[in-house]
Each structure stands twice: as structure tokens, then as C-alpha cells.
Amino acid sequence: MAFSSYKTIGEVLKTFQVTYTESNFMGEAEFQVSDYFREDLEMVMREGVVDNSEFAICENLIYPVLKEIWKTYTSKFILWSHQSLNYDENLSGFPEYILAKRSPLGKVVFDQPYFILVEAKQDNFEAAWAQCLAEMIAANKLHGELSITIFGIVSNGRLWQFGKLETEFFTRNITYYFIQELDKLFAAVNYLFQQSELQLNNLMAA
After folding, report:
1. So where are the chain's domains?
2. Span 3-205 CATH architecture
3. Predicted local confidence at residue 14, as pLDDT
4. Fewer CB within 10 Å, N or C, the chain?
């Protein structure tokens, strides 16, 4: 089954025997948002049609935030867009975005480990989380014996939700973040990048 075939979180949890919990695990790592970015985003949201499709949400609202933060981490990570992720016939498809380790073989090599998976949906957050969780499980299985905390983001562009997968335990963050509160949103997303960097540094030092 493709990731998009899963429609409820419960279905994914039951199929792959993952335990679900909710807590506020998210931290916030301050990120200096430039005036240019703020003004550009405000203009796009005011004058443009930013959420008429999942493609529009990705291009106008999600990718600009991810890209702005990723610029700080380019020596460690590649931010992949709609890259194929395949474990088996039940876990395959194209996540909107994947943050993965930059390969020593060059930027065009899709390399493990994978740290953040992002899924966009217009408003159906239940289906979005089912799809995102399936993607996180695929990434976890592709890592084999490597123990990685994998983070997930689900967003309709305006509202952002966060989760994490630790082996067979999935935790969804209770608090939501909003693009209208840009500093808080950037601090939350930057926190996931920082946590990913810490994990990568620990793996490289082992």
C-alpha cells in the first residue's frame, strides 16, 4: 500500500503495532527571522492564493519555512522534496519533504539516516497524520538496527502539528503552532533541526 492509502492513525498503529501517546515534547530553539522573509510571506498571504491545493500549500507556506531554517544546516543535511521513499509494498510513496543526512558522495545521493518527514494536507489532519506516520515507520525500518528518533510535521500551511517516532512508540505533540505566530513556529521547527543535528553528531562520534 502507498502511504496515501492509510486514512486513519488508528489503522497505521494497528497494522504496524505502534503505541500512541500525546505529550508536549517540543522545545523551542530561537531562530532570527529576517525582515525580508516576514515581508515576503505577508505579501504572499495577502495577495496570493496560497492554500487552494496541497501543491500551493507546499510551495507558498511550508517549503519557505523549512528552506529558511535548512540554510543554517546545509553542511549536515539535504532537504529533499517529493523524493521516493520505499521500504516494501505496504510502505512506499513520496513524502512532501524529507530531511536526510548529506551524503559524502554528493548532494544528489539520497542517504540515510532520515530525520524529519513532512506531510501537507488542506484540512484533513487525520489522514495527513496516518500518511505521515506510515512514512515515519518506513524511515524507521529502513534504518535497520540504527536507533533514530524520527520527527514528523503535518501542516495545512497555517496550522502546524508535530510528532515523533521512537522505535515502536509514536508521540503527538499536544500544542499546535501557527504561521501567524512566526517566531514561535520557526523556534519549533528549528528545534527539530537541532535535535536531528545532535543525533547525527552522536552517530558520527560513535
Report:
1. 3-205
2. Alpha-Beta Complex (3.90)
3. 96
4. C
